[in-house]
Amino acid sequence: MGLKMNNARISKRKLLVFYEKSGQVDLEPLYRGRDVKRSWLYVMRAFWLRKFIQKLFIGGVILDVGCGEGSLLKRIFRGEASPFIVGVDIAVSALRKAKSKICRGNFIQADAHYLPLRQRAFSIVICSEVLEHVLNPYKVIFELHRVTKKYVLVSTPTQMSSWLARLLMLIDRRRYKPDYDLKRHGHINFFMVKGLISYFNNYFVVQELRGIGIFMLHYETLGFIPAPILRKMMLLNFYLDILLSSLKPLNIIGNTTIFLLKEKNIKQHLFSSGIH
Fold it and tell me: What is the Cα–Cα distance from 226 to 214, expressed in whole angstroms?
């Protein structure tokens, strides 16, 4: 299974309405670890993206494609002077919140499939939890390549590569079905790590992988467990991920995968099959 798409049932207008509504939700409590059942994945994602950016950033402007309401950016650059950031999102409601959280930035309403930005304009491009939501991930990946000077950081759910997720499918099949009605998580694409790597290789060198949620538990389904015990379980999961997320083959079986991509020196940017 590579980049699985079957999105003819969803219109761009329907997606816009869904994300305008979603953009009104403040995710900052999740990134600050306040939700004992759901925070662990948000905290881990911000932790590793921050680590990568601290290692890679040597100046320039950072672009966040699908920046949402700004909580991830705020968490990544907490406690230090942030570089100038350009944030792009389809939802105006999210951009309003992002502007209030990020001082040094410019926020633009735009479609990730058609970024209104110059070629090779950004030193680092972030695209976190976006590919699973878009109508054509092939086209979005091409746009990420077009606008970066060097690096792209992509994080996206890769549950189909997780042995534990496959077991959980026997219990809760609905969780892993495309949300064409946009009534649940809004995920309309499902990926396996190897399929993504195969497509990324058209434009990038995959320099590093981090699998997050290798020992994934759906804490929201464990309501019968007291909160203090749940919090200890979440912390254990966090530290296990830190220790194991870069080890092969564990780094390709996470609930979510972060890809560090370095742009290939291609003289001519060509569309691959499937990009329209």
Answer: 23
Question: Which of the four CATH numbers 3.40.50.150, 3.50.50.60, 3.60.20.30, 3.30.565.10 does domain 7-263 have?
Answer: 3.40.50.150
Cα separation, 195 vs 18, whole angstroms: 28
**Coil, strand or helix at 82:** coil
**In this structure, what token pair is assigned to residue 134?**
């878009």
pLDDT: is 270 or 107 the higher one? 107
**Structure token pair of residue 144:** 């990420």
In tens, the pLDDT along 54-109 reads: 999 988 999 999 999 999 999 999 877 779 999 999 999 999 999 999 988 999 99
Number of Cβ atoms within 10 Å of the Cβ of 66: 22
What does the block give as tokens for 87? Answer: 């944030």
On the question of pLDDT at 213 being above 50, the answer is yes
